[in-house]
Amino acid sequence: MLTVGDMIPDTTLEIYYKDAFSKVNLSNYRGKWLVLLFYLSW
Amino acid sequence: MVNGSFSSSIYRGKWLVLLFYPADFTFVCPTELEDAAHHYAAFQKEGAEVVSISTDTAFVHKAWHDHSKAISTITYPMAADPTGALCRVFGTYIEGEGLSRRGSFIIDPDGKLVSIEIHDNSIGRNIEEILRKLQAAKFVRESGGAVVCPANWHPGEKTLKPGIDLVGKI
Question: Domain total for chain B?
Fold first, then answer.
């Protein structure tokens, strides 16, 4: 489990974005700030 | 704690807000803890106790309280965790530094953890947001879990009742 100060892993995720399905690796965001919002099913 | 050893079970039956911070006599900490002191009456009004915790000893807490104008306004318990035992339990301890990260935890009257927030130590907290989260958690609990609080919910605002009629409607 990650904690503050750790590096995030390179992880590929399926995404729905701009009315299309694709894949993105979190390392693609290196060089930018990134905000991840996890939520449950409701 | 300043007067004796810390036992979280003495707060059973009350809401408890734990504020971990890196160290006494530093720079961001007094602004946060002063802000918490400023909101302490509001937390108490909700039936919550606030306890701040660092790896300093209770003697250092006293010295800081005696010497800092900002810290002298604190009337909530300032807990000492010089071994880092409690910091380790809550995942705020920085091994190798002997300090805690900035972490805020809300615990319900049964002793169940309902909110975790951990920051990099360079980022100050928003105590008002912790109060808002406490109010939301309390409202949900007092409804018997019948309602949930939507984004940015404040007391008096509309809640949501999860049910089949809401599916696909929000």
Answer: 1
CB < 8 Å to A4, chain B: 101, 118-120
Cβ–Cβ gap A4/B119 under 8 Å: yes
Which residues from A are below 8 Å from B161, CB to CB? none
Rounded to the nearest 5 degrees, what angle is found at the Cα of B134, between the Cα atoms of B4 and B42?
70
Distance between alpha carbon B46 and the CA centroid of its chain, in Å? 13
Q: In this structure, is residue B61 part of a structural domain?
A: yes
* Rg, chain B, Cα only: 17
Note the pLDDT tens digit of each residue in B67-112: 999 999 999 999 999 999 999 999 999 999 999 999 999 999 999 9
Give per-residue pLDDT as tens, B109-154: 999 999 999 989 999 999 999 999 999 999 999 888 777 887 888 8
**ipTM for this model:** 0.75
Binary contact (B91, A3; C-beta < 8 A):
yes
- CATH number, domain of B29, equals 3.40.30.10
Residue B165 to residue B38: CA distance in whole angstroms? 42
Query: Model's pTM, two decimal places?
Result: 0.86
